[in-house]
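Ticket #4471: complex job returned nothing on first submit. Input attached below:
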Amino acid sequence: MLKITDLSARVGGKDILKGVNLEVNAGEVHAIMGPNGSGKSTLAQILAGREDYEVTGGTVSFEGRDLLAMPTEERARAGLFLGFQYPVEIPGVNNVYLLKAALNAKRKAAGEPEVDAYEFLTLIRQKMKFMQMSESFLTRAVNEGFSGGEKKRNEVLQMLVLEPKLAILDETDSGLDIDALKVVSAGVNSLRDPTRAVVLVTHYQRLLDYVVPDQVHVLSGGRILKSGDSSLARELEKRGYDWVLETRVA
Amino acid sequence: MNPSPAVRSFTSQWQSRSADALSAVRDEAMQRFLKLGLPTTHDETWRYTNLRSLAARSFEDAPRKTRSEIEPNASLSLLSNNDRAAALLVVNGYPVVPAADGLIDGIEINSLRELTRIDPKLLQRFMEPLSDADQQRWNLLNTALFVDGLHLKITHRVQVPLLILHVATSDRDNDIAFPRIIIEMAPGSSATIIEHHVAQGPHTPLNNSTTHIALERNAQLEHYRVFATGPGATHFDSLNIHQEHDSRLKQFTIALGGGLVRTSLEANLNQPGAALDSYALLVGHENRHVDCVNIVTHAAPHTRSTQTARAIASDDSRVVFNSKVIVNAGAAHAESQQSCRGLLLSPTAEIDTRPQLEIHADEVKCAHGATVGRLDPDMLFYMLSRGLDREAAQSLLVFAFLSDVLTGMSVASARTAIENALIVQLPDSQTLQKFR
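Support reply: We reran it on our side without changes. The output follows.
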């Protein structure tokens, strides 16, 4: 589904990614872990199409298409979703309007008719209940005045409504208390199926107790230094990132 | 220095006016205007608006018209028929309603021409004191030259909004009109009044309009002035406000059209408890020029004012918003807030905004803020990452930017009409229509 080959990128004149290789197949959940500043968020943003990040080398294919050649909005319509680490507040734009516009953009691209207003509201209510969100989210502006946890729930809500083929969740677990973490994890798990894939970008192993990944990668200094199964996450939790860096040097 | 052709033409209009009961004050206004001349960019509130090409033209009085000469579609309304108490039609400053109608539930309506005859003292109250301040220059000229207009006295609590439709129309170039409206709010009265300025036909007269609003004790008014004339139109509008004890005014200045629109608002909060919330929504596109100046004086303790201005400029347009809050000595516990924000939508557009404070009292709470910027790239990226079209995302963000003003409007039909007029000027109006 996603194949990243030798990807390097620069942000603000600084080389951040220095040859990332990663392959994610349908049905899989991958976790990308790593210390702060290792390039995890840059990778996530580049995959989603952030324009001010400069790709300096490598290729990315998504379902056989050249992802880097696609504009941001086309990537989303093709089924790629980024759950933001810091979801932006957009005062004046209603949360539900945005979601409806997003869903309709996707449907339009797939040649489907626009969603019926009643049907949409039913869908939203159902997903909001699942995410244990209050009805007030229906009337509020996008992320405006949301707490950190509410913003993350809102990201997962959007993901559940849009049902992406590939969801990249950038530190969706950070800043969540244990109850919120369980809700968010349940949301991610509900999306798991043989036709979809999930990439979890995270700093901590905590989330991976609830969403068990098929593969874990350690990104550091702009490269993937180590990959393994879910036991790698526990190993990291025990021994710290230095362990990976040291074993590599050794 | 020789007077410009424009000033010479105003002088000959002045000479052709017949004397009336207001001649003394009119004469003084004209003499002051002639002494000061047209404003230039050396005048503080005219720094960004150059009237040189206008000064080279000569003007004549715009004609009176009857109702039958006005195309029905010129009365494109901000209020549906069901939502309003009445619609008063004013063409080139002349009221077309039969003024003899007198009373519409809680509103006494008189023509100024009529009042000049029967109660000149009343009118004089709204003309004085004359001021040499540069933001009052066109008001001086209007005082000297207006022929007719409307006086509205609100005596009760009027539930439904009142629409004043100003139509500017002419059969030739280089006409000028002097609309004048006086709104008097009796103690305890309340109303919503919408002044909507539109143009009809290929020739639009130069518009020099003034509105005076006086709110007595406990009176409440929501007032709109909406400018929606064509690209060739030039409009100077002066709004003068006096507020007494515990009166409350919510004022909206909406500039949606016109080649050159210059609005001024001068408010005096004369007694404790007076409160003014003023909003401005200034839209520049093509090569249009919008210049808005507000001057609010807190003349008594415990007075409150807010100013919320949102400006957008696209193409080669220029939008200017200057506001000044003055707190007089003795006006302790005055509170004021100025929030001016501008959004540039093209590299060749320009927005100038300058909030100012002049405080002569202690223990006041005054805040001001001004920002001018472009669309937030993080917001745009977020919306694109959800699959929205770039144009739709941009339009939504622009619309959202204006929402602080739009959500303040209590007249739903007016808000919808103003939103509709705004939306058609945005890059993706279709999507926006669906998402309101």
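The two ends of chain B are 56 Å apart (CA to CA). Closing as resolved unless it happens again.
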